[in-house]
Design goal:
Layout lengths: L7 E6 L10 H20 L3 E8 L4 H10 L3 H18 L6 E4 L3 H16 L3 E11 L4 E3 L4 E4 L8 E2 L16 E5 L7 E10 L1 H15 L5 H13 L4 E2 L1 E2 L16 E2 L1 H4 L3 H10 L5 H5 L11 E8 L3 H14 L9 E6 L2 E3 L2 E2 L10 H6 L4 H10 L7 E2 L2 H30 L13 H22 L3 H22 L1 H4 L4 H24 L5 H11 L32 H14 L1
Parallel strand pairs: 1-2, 1-13, 2-3, 13-14, 15-17
Antiparallel strand pairs: 4-5, 4-9, 6-7, 6-8, 9-10, 11-12, 15-16
Subcellular location: Cytoplasm
Family: Belongs to the class-I aminoacyl-tRNA synthetase family.
Main location: cytoplasm
Length: 571
């Protein structure tokens, strides 16, 4: 639970649909980025809670159920386990990974809606819906496709265009077709409930003015564009069976639109995490004067096409329900799209590299974590390439970090009987320069990760590897150790300093590559008291500290060769 006087960090990642296996774009866009940030916060001693879960209601699930000849519940059960297994393989360290079909979700969503309705922020309007006469059903969201009215993308869905991100009603589609039978639907009237966004616009603008400072640049741009265009009432119900029932007698045959209930899922997942403490979740979700006065810093990770639902719809819902404090200290951290050679990664269309593909290569999950974070599309789209993956791993991870770590520890093992040699107090200009450069990188690393700029933080780690290699190459301890007693002392000083840099790297790399970090920590017997991220670099391994016997080579080279051969067969 939150603790007054401490830094309390609540982290969410956009809830993945259960309509397919998660692809690498989903993983870097949401769960992996959030995991790195959560691991970093814990290493900085912050009271951290990281929740996520599968998004299980709506047309995405119904469509998948039709495709596979299963019930929606069976689809959810099947893909929940698949998602959970892939995230476990990727070492995603959720505090709780739940489901939006859990009882807590129904309870929290219906209470939230009742508050919005009671406070006068809902509207009942008759609207045109698309009816497939052949299937005898209204076509919502993913049951209908057509041309986007904004960008002419030919496969826009009935609620959003994958091409440009435009949100729409299905009746706006150009030449729509039923996804089930390919027939052209006809418009019919249907009564629906709407969230009155125009009525909320003033309060929403005030909230954004106070909250937007910590958001990523793209999140601010997208949200401001929405506000500038003017807000319209947003339909929050659907003529479906698979969803959370609307708790009003006159709408008993309807369910909530998935993007109304999905963000509320962060609250219900927190409630599920708190278990028997029925009111514990409200301490995480405000008002933040409660819970003993504990302040909560909320960080939400998502892809750019999810921004309007999180920065407009979700806060508007909370304001309408008289819970604006729930997002008082919030930051939206988003990524652009990860592209494949044949277009944007897409679960529904089967485009891209999927989590099970990564697992089947035989490569360690840390390899994929490193590459995805190295290529993280923070400000613009980036492209995934098998060849580039191998190049980045070889050049940056193996030849840079792996080379430095292996040489430093091998010299301790080979020349100093596995004991860290003395780092003397008589420092050369080169020594002082190395420590200053590394301290600067540590400072930049902390600054980058505090701002959730994960790619920049990884660059700082790689820079430390470059500095270490240059320092070692310039001092040549393998030559000095064969010289005079003074040369041998100098060799020990250089190797001891490098061993301490390895200890630092083992901690800094932990949020990014947790298994690699554990391996290095075990190799150097890193003391528990040094397994936190410092503010600057100061040598901390004592003279005589014993390390483990160094293996013949760095541990990921063989896997990379075998895995890359597998990947090339798939291209």
């Amino acid at each position: 639970l939150p603790v007054a006087g401490e830094t309390n960090v609540l982290i969410t990642s956009a809830l993945p649909y259960v309509n397919n296996v998660p692809h690498l774009g989903n993983i870097i866009g949401c769960v992996l980025s959030a995991d790195v940030f959560a691991r970093y916060c814990r290493l900085r001693g912050r009271n951290t809670l990281f929740v996520c879960g599968t998004d299980e209601y709506g047309t995405a699930t119904e469509a998948k159920a039709l495709q596979e000849g299963l019930t929606p519940r069976q689809v959810c059960d099947k893909y929940y386990e698949i998602h959970k297994g892939i995230y476990e393989w990727f070492n995603i360290g959720f505090d709780h990974f739940g489901r939006t079909t859990a009882p807590e979700q129904i309870e929290v969503v219906q209470k939230m809606f009742n508050a919005c309705h009671k406070n006068g922020y809902t509207l009942t309007e008759e609207m045109d819906q698309l009816l497939c006469q052949k299937c005898d059903k209204f076509l919502a969201d993913r049951f209908v496709e057509g041309g986007c009215p904004d960008c002419a993308y030919p496969e826009a869905r009935g609620d959003q265009c994958d091409g440009c991100g435009h949100l729409m009603n299905a009746t706006e589609l150009i030449n729509p077709k039923c996804k089930v039978c390919q027939e052209m639907p006809v418009p019919r009237k249907s009564q629906q409930l709407f969230l009155d966004l125009p009525k909320l616009e003033g309060k929403l603008s005030d909230w954004m003015h106070k909250s937007m400072e910590g958001w990523s640049h793209n999140a601010r741009v997208i949200t401001k564009a929405w506000l500038k265009a003017g807000l319209k009432p947003r339909c929050i119900t659907r003529d479906l069976k698979w969803g959370i029932p609307v708790p009003l007698p006159e709408f008993s045959n309807k369910v909530f639109y998935v993007w109304f209930d999905a963000p509320i899922g962060y609250m219900s997942l927190t409630k599920a995490y708190c278990g028997n403490d029925k009111n514990g979740w409200t301490q995480w979700w405000g008002p933040h004067s409660g819970g003993g006065g504990a302040k909560i810093d909320l960080y939400q990770f998502m892809a750019k096409d999810n921004v309007p639902f999180h920065s407009i719809m979700f806060p508007a819902t909370l304001i309408a329900a008289s819970k604006p404090d729930s997002l008082e200290h919030s930051e939206y951290t988003l990524v652009s799209h990860l592209m494949a050679t044949d277009g944007k990664f897409s679960k529904s269309r089967g485009v891209g590299v999927f989590g099970n593909d990564a697992k089947d290569t035989g490569l360690a999950s840390d390899i994929f974590r490193f590459y995805l974070l190295y290529m993280r599309p923070e400000s613009q789209d980036s492209s995934f390439s098998w060849v580039d993956l191998a190049t980045k791993i070889n050049n940056e991870l193996l030849n840079n970090l792996g080379n430095f770590i292996h040489r430093a520890l091998s010299f301790v093992d080979q020349f100093f009987e596995g004991q860290v040699p003395l780092v003397s107090e008589d420092w050369s200009t080169e020594d002082s320069r190395l420590v200053a450069l590394i301290s600067r990188e540590v400072d930049s690393y902390v600054s980058a990760l505090d701002s959730a700029k994960l790619k920049d933080g990884l660059r700082c780690i790689l820079n430390i590897g470059h500095h270490g290699n240059q320092y070692m190459q310039g001092n040549r301890p393998w030559v000095l150790v064969k010289g005079s007693s003074q040369d041998k002392m100098r060799a020990g000083h250089v190797v001891g300093l490098c061993a301490n840099v390895v200890g630092l790297l083992s901690v800094l790399i932990s949020p990014y590559m947790p298994d690699t970090s554990k391996t290095i920590m075990k190799q150097i017997n890193l003391p528990e008291c040094n397994r936190t991220i410092p503010d600057k670099f100061v040598p901390f391994l004592s003279h005589g500290h014993r390390i483990e016997k160094v293996k013949s080579t760095i541990f990921i080279i063989v896997n990379l060769v075998v895995g890359f051969q597998f990947l090339m067969r798939k291209v």
